[in-house]
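Morning!

As promised:
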Amino acid sequence: QKEVEQNSGPLSVPEGAIASLNCTYSDRVSQSFFWYRQYSGKSPELIMSIYSNGDKEDGRFTAQLNKASQYVSLLIRDSQPSDSATYLCAVKGYSTLTFGKGTMLLVSP
Amino acid sequence: ETGVTQTPRHLVMGMTNKKSLKCEQHLGHNAMYWYKQSAKKPLELMFVYNFKEQTENNSVPSRFSPECPNSSHLFLHLHTLQPEDSALYLCASSQQSVAGNNSPLHFGNGTRLTVT
């Protein structure tokens, strides 16, 4: 059973702080990793993808991947209230995409 | 037109009703998916269609019946559902099926289904 684990939260951070979202996975052959953001009542939207160890930066977002430790994280710098949402981690092995339950992030003004 | 459109947005049905969910994508993608999202649970993959052919049926009960007449349209026919089937049903599309490539999923806004 392939599993993707996330802390359900909520993770509360003040505006302007760095939010750190973590995800661990069980399938060692996982190859691709994705972060989706889902606002309440809306559909998930892709915000980051990462395929190799290390950091990948895109604006205020940085994805970090450590395959040896089987974890992937998402850092959000200068957090804004508009970042308040549920963040879904998704991990792809050879053929299947497995989602975590998501972490709710609350950014307070 | 948004990329992936789902109708209806909300649906309330009794256990003896028959209804259908509709999904249409305007992205020129070749793969379409049905996912179920329940509270406190991860997204659950239900069905995958690649080039109109069903490539995955994730042990879904037969009271859910998918139909994919072409690469742009996907339906989910519902009959004799149970209250535990109440959930958000999300349609998604990607350039190609997830298997073997990294095409990201584009989701519709979902249908909030309540079975009474």
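Chain A touches chain B through 22 residues (CB under 8 Å).

Hope this helps with the figure draft.
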